[in-house]
Request: fold
Amino acid sequence: MPTTGPSRTAVEIASQPACWREAADTLPRHRAALPVRGERVAVVGCGTSWFVAQAYAQLRESGGHGETDAFAASEFPLGRGYDRILAITRSGTTTEVLDLLAKVRGTAVTGALTADPATPVMTAADAVAVLDFADEESVVQTRFATTALALLRAHLEAEDALPAGVRTVARAAEDAERAVAEPLADVVTDAEQFTFLGTGWTYGLALEAGLKMREAAGAWTEAYPAMEYRHGPISITGPGRVAWVFGPVPAGLAEDVARVGGTLVADSGAGTVSGSGGGGRDPFASPALDPLADLVRAQRLAVLLAEAQGQDPDRPRNLTRSVVLSVPAGEDA
Reply:
């Protein structure tokens, strides 16, 4: 059935600049759940939340706030000691996260970021930051994930632990407004394949961009650390295929993409495009965006591609809003 207006997912994507600002404004009431400077921290999640955890872990450690690891909740090394375990869970019901919090109770301080205060995570963790203003009706996560990362960035910013070159949340929100408003270019909307790349904290964003495109549109996407691109992944790049870099573009990578006929998108790095299909035109405007705002573009592209194929981005195939298993994670059925 054709829609008469924008999808719910598209509406939620467009609300992200406001959500990021609210996250920064409400930081003081969420501090109890957040890491203290110097703590050894593990950040856990599933799916999108795991990729947010990876991005934050890189930001926190490189900013000097403390040693930080990120794990899929199902792969947490129970024998390893941490001062705090921080769980990211939009629904507050994900089996693997709740199972892990129960197993580590009493061994470390636990915190959680969630969108729903009426869920089991509220009692499973020692302290919970509720970002209910960023909750979503959509199955596919967009604004909760980026708002959780905006809150964590705002916390590092407030503690003078934001890595050099990473913008303030206020600046990122301004960039996100541009990312929401500007049209997507033909070189990306017409592409048949996407390889997302990142360095440091932006590798988590690359992973999330790839997941979003697969979830919403069933697109062929891959994601790698940027320096790994030439160690095999470049073999699939060619005309009609995009290498999309979040953050800085490694030296020589643009030339390599051009050599094989692909299109480079680097709007949160050098802001350049090369290769076939570009027609000499940068598909995104300059100056460069904050990488988190660039992720908003990938979210928009996922919705656009889904709709172009006659799919409903609000109801993606084979997915549910939360994964709740019939037995605790790690046990046999």
About this structure: The radius of gyration is 19 Å. The first helix runs from residue 8 to 14.
